[in-house]
Amino acid sequence: MQIPEINTLQMNRTEAAHTGVSKLSDIAGAPLNSIPNAAENGVERTRRSFEDYLLQAFQTMNQQQVDVSNLQQQVITDPDSVDLHDVTIAMSKARMSLNLAQSVIDRLVQGWSEITTTR
């Protein structure tokens, strides 16, 4: 198979909103404010960092732990107002989220140590 000159290769774009322009050569020399962006095309994107995802996951895990603690206190102070099965289910959810968080932390530490040792 012979490939013609590299300059003649064209990239197929499936949707104009992905790039905002039809050809890469359209960007060259154009002022930055004249290039359409995703917000002008009606596509609104929210970007969240990895840190945001981790913080939200830890806040959820913490809230589950607090909910279990509150349910346990409620069982002690007013046992008729709480079903014991709800307490058991909440404890299982909190334990599972804590185990998952511990696994994620272990994997992050393991990955970081692999990155630092390969340098």
Question: What's the short story on this structure?
Answer:
With 119 residues, this protein is mostly helical. It has 3 helices and no strands. The two termini are 39 Å apart.
Can you walk through the features of this model?
The protein is elongated. It is mainly α. α2 packs antiparallel against α3. About 10% of the residues have low confidence.
Descriptive terms for the model:
3 helices; 119 residues; elongated
- Structural class designation: mainly alpha
How many strand elements? Answer: 0
- Approximate helicity band: 55-70%
Largest sheet: none
Terminal residue distance: 39 Å
Radius of gyration: 26 Å
Topology as a string of helices (H) and strands (E) = HHH
| Mean pLDDT over all positions | 75
How much of the sequence is in beta strands? under 5%
Total helical elements? 3
What is the element layout, followed by pairings?
Blueprint: H1 16-19, H2 50-77, H3 84-118
Helix pairs in contact: 2-3
